[in-house]
Amino acid sequence: MAFDIDMIKKVYEDMTERVDKAREVVGKPLTLSEKILYSHLWDGNPNTAFVRGKDYVNFAPDRIALQDATAQMALLQFMQAGKPKVAVPTTVHCDHLIQAKQGAVPDLKRANETSSEVFDFLASVSNKYGIGFWKPGAGIIHQVVLENYAFPGGMMIGTDSHTVNAGGLGMVAIGVGGADAVDVMAGMAWELKFPKLIGVKLTGSLNGWTSAKDVILKVAGILTVKGGTGAIVEYFGEGAKNLSCTGKGTICNMGAEIGATTSTFGYDDSMERYLRATDRSDIADEANKIREYLTGDDEVYASPETYFDQVIEINLDTLRPHLNGPFTPDLATPVGELGPKAKANGWPLKVDWGLIGSCTNSSYEDLTRAASIAKQAVDKKIKPKSDFGINPGSEQIRFTAERDGVLKIFEDLDATIFTNACGPCIGQWDRSDRKGDEKNTIVHSFNRNFSKRADGNPNTHAFVGSPEMVAAIAISGRLDFDPMNDTLLNEDGEEIKLDEPHGLELPPLGFDVKESGYVEPLEDGSNINITVSPTSERLQLLTPFTPLGNNITGAKLLIKAFGKCTTDHISMAGPWLRFRGHLDNISNNMLIGAVNAFGKKTNFIKNQLTGEYGGVPDVARAYKAAGVKTIVVGDHNYGEGSSREHAAMEPRHLGVAAVLVKSFARIHETNLKKQGMLGLTFDKESDYDLIQEDDTINFLDLDAFAPDKQLTLEFVHADGSKDVIKTNHTYNQAQIDWYNEGSALNLIKKENKA
Questions:
Q1: Percentage of residues in the chain with pLDDT exceeding 90?
Q2: Superfamily of domain 555-753
Q3: Strands 488-489, 495-496: parallel, antiparallel or unpaired by DSSP?
Q4: Which residues form the Aconitase A/isopropylmalate dehydratase small subunit swivel domain (predicted)?
């Protein structure tokens, strides 16, 4: 039985009327993305044809998902909103705060001990406000959502960039910052600029070593890490129908790595099979009644160039397996070409670890395909040359895979089965075989491979591939191994060629689980009191931000970030995850990973008040103590990566008034706006080069801050010379109101008191 089946029935009941009306208003056939967007308008039935990439639109999402690291700050904000209960179905999933080290049992035990304060806080707040709670060990948020909450045609937001995974079940599921989630939890509309549409036509079918992961690795190579910004990617064609539901989820999941708002697929037989296999036949029955509304119109897919802003076509028959990396998920290389490329670039060929799992590739199908390769190593006496780590996606996956003997195959290779959690994918990995900054290579089936992400080592070269390719590469121990053409020597000295992988879309005996880890909230939690110790290192009640005002003068340049500056650079994960509920403590990691354009070092910037150099947070605190506002300058796609709003809240907390860059990643720009900051872009990108280390900044016309009106900044250099720079912004009047009140949350509280 599905969660919230009555809500889903209501969505489907409204959808037919609203899609018909939207088709009439727009005056043409609709893509699936448009059907879902227009059927989830806050005002109900459509009466306006929105302009893609321009119009801000209010939506009414069906549900919200929060993971434990981001849930802390989101719930701390929601507690200030003055609401007795969440307005839409919401869940919290404890998957980020579990460090991978020894194996599932000891690692989970240690996490429950070291993070008990946080887990207890999340459980209590969930109980008080009617939020479903998934305990530590229950699984990775996106796999659990796919198994339990995702449904075709729905709209969901989540405080994790990989919320988009649910597009594998035909949703429009979008990653947001905690403040966005709080709006919806408080019963308000959720605002989004109406996305552009990228269509990806898939023909043929996967074969041999090629997997669904290779589709998105190929797309990432085509579009790059910013090519999907502001767009929904919609996959269609016979090739799309030939993919499994969890394979579709993998493709949508890693759409976050091209900056896409989300990705999705039309409802088809594979989704129906998955719904029924996960005990949600009631949803499948309802979806079948309106099947034509849960995919794009036939005319759209027949002439996609007419209806999408951009169209890409990929033939699955000829698609080759890829490994993407290192250091960026869009550096795509077909497996057979990786050897020469690695040698030319000095990438270490020896592979130390193969890691399988994460929210991207931890389904039953993923594990069985990788296990089919691992079993060959066991049966053919091939001793793996690399260490193995496995993260099952959920307790249901783990229990079923153990029952069916899948996990034993990995254990026979001496693999470590970690907890059903994120683990190494987000830096929660106590890696025993490496110390310092030794140059090395790992391969994994995760989604991101930024510098330092997995293990904190800037010289770990991480490559992204499918679970089966990761297994083959790890068994060989060499990055240049091509399982389609190369052989391996077994213990008897025989040359062995690995057979092609094979897997099972769904378990033949069905899914099973003894203890899912789900806790239903109380119907009435009004008597629950939430307490946070004022001396806690992990949790801190929030103090509302003070408005920055419309007369900012004498501001100082904090840092001019050089090159790629992701949310990992702005607010690292890994060991810092323990402070995600304590804004002041976690602010000690603010921008410590960003490369300073002056000197090309990390966490080493000039304090203009003293002339001395120090760490970014320390210098920022000195400016704040002196009452001096600061600005941050950055390059393209600033804030790429995670949805973590800490990357906006930390600068806000430490006195940063504005972030001025060449371009933003979508979620980060919104997070800055929500926290009452200025997110600006250079009108002329070359003006980035004018910014000097000792600059003082004056905002010349902030008192006239208005939509579609440029802001002018004066940069006063140390020698007294000046450069006046025009900047652009995308604030509408509602977002300017957030700025004027100090944050979006301040405005919510003000309106609730009115």
A1: 96
A2: Aconitase, domain 4 (3.20.19.10)
A3: antiparallel
A4: 557-684
Annotate 366-417 with DSSP letters as a single string.
HHHHHHHHHHHHHHTTPPPSSEEEE--SBHHHHHHHHHTTHHHHHHTTT-EE
Cis amide leading into 326 (omega within 30): yes
Q: What are phi and psi of 323, to 5 degrees?
A: -125, 125
pLDDT by residue (tens digit) across 129-164? 999 999 999 999 999 999 999 999 999 999 999 999
User: What digits encode the pLDDT tens for the residues 199-250?
Assistant: 999 999 999 999 999 999 999 999 999 999 999 999 999 999 999 999 999 9
Query: The domain 323-496: what is its CATH number?
Result: 3.30.499.10
512 is catalytic: no
Tokens matching residue 25 = 């208003």
User: Is residue 263 flagged as an active site residue?
Assistant: no
Look up 644 and say whether it is catalytic: yes
Domain boundaries, the chain: 323-496, 555-753
Half-sphere exposure of 704 (CA within 13 A, CB side): 8
Torsion of CA 545, 551, 554, 555, to 10 degrees: 40
Nearest to 271 by CA among 146, 392, 156: 146
3-state DSSP assignment of residue 198:
strand
Q: Give the C-alpha separation, 750 to 754, whole Å.
A: 6
Which of 386, 476, 587, 642 is flagged as catalytic?
A: 642
96 catalytic per annotation: yes
Could you read off the pLDDT of 606-617 as tens digits, one per residue? 999 999 999 999
* Alpha-carbon span 720 to 722, nearest angstrom: 7
Tally of CB atoms within 10 A around 489: 12
Q: Which of 95, 214, 404, 455 is catalytic?
A: 95
Say whether 160 is catalytic: yes
Is 643 part of the annotated catalytic residue set? no
Active-site pick, 444, 448, 569, 636: 448
Predicted TM-score of the model (pTM):
0.92
Annotated catalytic residue, options 322, 621, 644, 653: 644
**Active-site residue (options: 93, 96, 461, 653):** 96
